Predict the structure.
Amino acid sequence: MMRFTVLTLFPDAFRFIEEYSVLGRAVRSGLIALETVDIRDYATDRHGTADDYQFGGGPGMVMKPEPVFAAVEATLANIPAEDRSATPVALTSPQGDILNQGTVNEFARAPGVILICGHYAGVDERIREGLITHEVSIGDYVLTGGELAAMVIIDAVSRFVPEVVGSAENVEHDSITSGLLQHPLYTRPADFRGTAVPEVLRSGNHADIERWRRRESLERTLRLRPDLLNTAPLTNSDRVFLASLGWSGTSD
Ligand code: ADE
């Protein structure tokens, strides 16, 4: 069971996850728990004020520290003491480390994840200094708020919770999870508008098929994402094959 607690100014946005096919099923069957906390409920005033003007002046509001600290502290108080230090407190923001499979796996191994959805011009720096363990961006572009980024994180992490996705093998063999891009996939018909499925895939020879798929993955990764080859687990024969394609052993 994986527990996500999302601190947000827009809790209703997360209905999408509760209802959406794969994740909705996982929530309903108790494989993942999704709790949303409305940051405004922890505001210090009656109006639920969560933002304020910047010291020093300038456009854009800043998320106030008190409600976010109070909401995180209340969340941490509700989880078993032995799990607290292993629970990431992640802020979504365009300044964060760009999300990758390594971070996704790290979160998937945690007992739960607390996600804070950034808003406005940003958060008070004391939130960054005193509360968060990870700051995560989902790419070099700016969203109107951190909710969609939090949903991306929840989706990617949930795939590693046992039974959320059909078979463990699916998850392990994924493009990127294996460190390489995926080989081409084909289904019927065997001939579509004059383009035939590669003969090897119809040969029934599993060793040949595995070798073909591995080489296609390597070739595609070298062509489209050579940076991945620096960290992908490669065998000696992978290296020999890549060298035959002109790979020099390091790529960027
Ligand atoms: N909030 C605004 N833009 C974002 C991004 N690219 N990633 C995560 N959170 C964000």
